[in-house]
Specification:
With 486 residues, the protein is α/β, with parallel strands linked by helices. The protein has 2 domains: 1-40, no CATH class; 46-240 and 298-484, Alkaline Phosphatase, subunit A, CATH 3.40.720. Helices cover 34% and strands 15% of the residues. The chain has helices at residues 3-9, 13-19, 24-40, 73-76, 81-85, 93-96, 135-139, 157-166, 176-184, 247-268, 271-294, 301-307, 317-329, 351-372, 444-454; strands at 61-68, 120-123, 128-131, 144-151, 194-200, 227-229, 334-340, 379-384, 388-389, 407-408, 412-417, 425-427, 429-430, 437-439, 442-443, 464-466, 469-471. Helix 10 (247-268) packs antiparallel against helix 11 (271-294), helix 12 (301-307) runs antiparallel to helix 14 (351-372) and helix 13 (317-329) packs parallel to helix 14 (351-372). The longest helix has 24 residues, at 271-294.
Length: 486
């Protein structure tokens, strides 16, 4: 048989529908174009859904300072005098009965209580407690809302991080930055709407792996995933033209590629083809915008000093915090700054000092920088990890250099500032040992619902249909924590 005739006879049902450009294929393309046209009419300048925000937002953008590995709440912000009094004594069984801990702790019976490593003191008019580990954050307490009753369901790092960022402990769901890029769009065409940056303290023995799904788009079109800015070399790979390629030549190549991709999209209707076109165009614009973004020579010394001595060192948390401010100034919607090394199973008396030194001043400096620029009112800052750490000891009480704390999901502290959050308050509380959230508990889904609310989004109405079901960031849970909303 003639191979051409044979190929025509072998066309399957999917190929028939996808290639019927004058029939079902054109109808599908028309539907896609109508959807994209509706998306362009958004509350934001570029992209987004025309139906959002649902109501007037208090925040327009988010900087999420995510502390991978879980900071010890009882060593940093959650002051418990009884914990000091019970130092070296077995943890009371009524505080831990029936609770699940990591395999490193197993059964907590007989574990010894561990007092805070550094002393605490109160700060500002609010009287918020912070330990000597966090002097700069403590000094900014009157601008901060401390949530001391956070709790989660996960006891291991990756599922717990994924749960916070995507609402599911299993990878594959859109992260909150992707949700916001999809729903609210961006205020710039020259930079991504969602940017992720990572860092880790030098010399740490307890760094966590940064998985790409921490800033992934899940089942949303991939143009909404976070763009990773690297800590060394080119901030974003493949932006620079190869030798011999001019800007004009690159422009012509992209125009030709766009035409070919549009033809392919007209034939198959795959939305990922539109993503490819959009990403090519974004990369072209970023060839100019990224070098300008990362050139901090115009920053006055007084501003650089806010962030601490590591601010000019690429790849550090301080540098990333400064980049976060510069990104949101230029229209980026969501910046996720992740810092690893908080997993102090055997180093709470050593490496916790390094972690706090590397992150305390930059976090507070970012807050002050935004405030003095008039950006804090509509920029939401979040600081926190995936869970807390046990108030009891992991290790040998006789070997202080090896003291540590295990994973603890039942009570921990997160702080928020700006963007419609009530400043200078402490919301919720844990019990007398910092073991369980007892007053106004805040679940991860409650936190996510509140973050969306501050951005003018009703979390129950903000959904995306996937495989026959409408999904949302908060799954089927979550209540807005109105007590922290200004």
């Amino acid at each position: 048989m003639n191979p051409i005739t044979e190929n025509q006879l072998m066309v399957n049902r999917r190929q028939f529908f996808s290639r019927s450009a004058m029939g079902i294929g054109s109808a599908a393309l028309g539907s896609l174009l109508a959807r994209d046209g509706q998306a362009a009419q958004s509350g934001g300048a570029f992209g987004g859904l025309g139906t959002l925000p649902h109501f007037a937002p208090k925040a327009k953008r988010v900087i999420y300072l995510f502390m991978n590995g879980a900071p010890s709440h009882t060593d940093l912000f959650d002051y418990k005098p009884l914990q000091k009094e019970m130092h070296g004594k077995p943890v009371p069984q009524e505080f831990v009965a029936g609770k699940r801990f990591s395999t490193m702790t197993g059964n907590p019976k007989g574990k010894l209580m561990l007092a805070p490593i550094e002393p605490f003191k109160q700060h500002g008019q609010s009287g918020a407690w912070a330990s000597n580990f966090m002097p700069h954050t403590g000094a900014a307490a009157d601008d901060i809302c401390f949530i001391k009753s956070m709790y989660t369901e996960q006891v291991n790092h990756s599922p717990a991080v994924s749960f916070f960022l995507s609402g599911s402990e299993m990878p594959g769901r859109p992260t909150m930055g992707a949700w916001l890029s999809y729903g609210l769009g961006s205020d710039t065409e020259s930079l991504p709407s969602f940017v992720a940056m990572t860092s880790v303290s030098k010399g740490t023995t307890c760094g966590q792996i940064f998985y790409d799904y921490y800033w992934g788009s899940g089942f949303l079109p991939t143009r909404f995933q976070g763009v990773k800015f690297r800590g060394g070399g080119a901030p974003v790979l493949y932006l620079k033209n190869p030798a011999g390629i001019t800007g004009g030549t690159r422009r012509g190549m992209l125009d030709d590629l766009a035409q070919l991709n549009q033809m392919r999209h007209a034939e198959f209707g795959d939305p990922e083809i539109l993503t490819r076109i959009a990403q090519y165009e974004m990369a072209y614009r970023m060839q100019t915008s990224v070098p300008e973004l990362t050139d901090v020579s115009s920053e006055p010394k007084s501003v650089l000093d806010l962030y601490g001595p590591q601010v000019k060192e690429r790849g550090t948390f301080a540098y990333n915090c400064l980049m976060a401010r510069r990104l949101i100034e230029r229209g980026t919607r969501f910046v996720q700054v992740m810092h690893a090394g908080w997993d102090q199973h055997r180093s709470v008396t050593t490496e916790l000092y390094t972690q706090c030194k590397d992150t305390d001043q930059p976090s507070a400096g970012l807050l002050r920088d935004l405030k003095q620029r008039g950006l804090l009112d509509d920029t939401l800052i979040v600081w926190g990890g995936e869970f807390g750490r046990t108030p009891f000891l992991q290790g040998d009480m006789k070997n202080r250099k090896q003291w540590g704390r295990d994973h603890h999901p039942y009570a921990f502290t997160t702080w928020m500032a700006g963007g419609g959050v009530r400043p200078g308050i402490t919301y919720g509380a844990s019990d007398t040992l910092g073991m369980n959230a007892t007053e106004n508990p805040v679940h991860v889904h409650d936190f996510q619902a509140t973050l969306l609310h501050l951005l003018g989004i009703d979390h129950e109405r903000f959904t995306y249909k996937h495989q026959g079901r409408r999904y949302r960031l908060t799954d089927v849970h979550g209540k807005v924590v109105k007590g922290i909303v200004s």
